[in-house]
# Entry
Amino acid sequence: MATAPALAAPPVATVRRARQVSRRRPNTRPLWNLAAIVVIWATSLVVVAVWVAGGEVQSLLAGGVDSLNSLGRAAGLASANLLFYQVLLMARVPLFERGFGRDGITRLHRIVGFWSFALFTAHIGLQILGYAVQAGINPLEQAWQFVWEYPGMLLATAGTALLLLVVVTSVRKARKRLRYESWHLLHLYGYLGVGLAIPHMLWTGADFTVSPAATVYWWAMWGVTVATVVVFRLGLPLATSLRHGIRVSAVERDGQSGVSVRMTGRRIGALKARGGQFFVWRFLDGAGWTRGHPFSLATDPAGGELVISARLVGDGTQRLAALRPGTRVLIEGPYGTMTADERRGGHLLMIGAGAGVAPLVAMLEEADWAPGEATLIVRDHSAADALRADAIDHLVRERGLRHAPLPGRRALTTSSWLPTSHAPWAGADLIRYVSPRPADTDVFLCGPQPWMDAVRADLRRAGVPAERVHLEAFTV
# Structure
């Protein structure tokens, strides 16, 4: 007989409601989303206008060499614009962070990266072939002439090699073989690759200099891109860190294989952080401090304290356990749109795996919900691995949280997000069991991407509307 998930919840009469402070804000995300989309489409239309103004339509229709060169220039223009956005999307620009959220930015970054490199490759191949046919020489000889005789092409070649390195190491199979720290360092070379690849277009590309307006646009995009990196990735984080003076106050074990780091500082409330959001953290504890790590807040920051919890799985997380009280901390953030403001009402269902439980607990601490109205399902390899156990127990005792821990090895069934103890269950049936009104349920997910994909599939089968499923992915 299938085992039903044990839902821990005290009698309602024993529940003492916690501090009820509603901090719900108007949901402005749709407006930010519209603004971000308008900006991207507007710049894309400018690129089309530049291509048309250069007489490329006539060249394309002419056939032969003219068509090859016209297509090559079109690919180069589109690639250049996408390369700018490849950087802008990851530069923590508020327009995109608030408009798309971290999950949306992650998807866009992957798609834009693929197409920018594909178009970049097509641009190189078409231009080499077109110029070679026009000059009546071997394509390899033409490629050699491009590199050594055209202004900026040697830099562009080096930039292409760096971008290729980033693309290869971002393929999922290659990514899994690299430590996060190594992959992150290699990925930073993408900035240098873009910086080296763009100048030759600004110096020699006819479509970049076809008119004063085109020249202004491309140099403006170059300047804006550099400025956003300097301001949002360097300037503002440094100013925020200095203003708030964040320091480690305590380091504690969290479960059998986790650690929690508590931090305090000046005017923490002024950060306007929310449960469910994340920061990029840099701990000034010695060599390697420059590598930032994204960790979600593990508790409601309204208490004047910043807390993160993590599994000890790599160099970055192992380093957390060795931090000493008083260590200075540099922060970037807060980022992310997965907050309690996304909730539309009705039952609140939180489903987390491993360290993904941390932001869910922070949201539960902040959000306003009645006893029995919120359910937390947690997947772990073993009960001893569970993170934030004390905080969850407190929510069960004091606020009537229904808690369903599901520890154990992964079930080899269609609902692969469940443990072997619940292998006979269909995932959709289990969701309906813990939340009998799926159409009136807000679901917040946090965990590894493949695991979240499996949960989302079962949520859809259970009848949970797609617009009421909230999640953010943090990996590219």
In short: The longest strand covers residues 247-253.
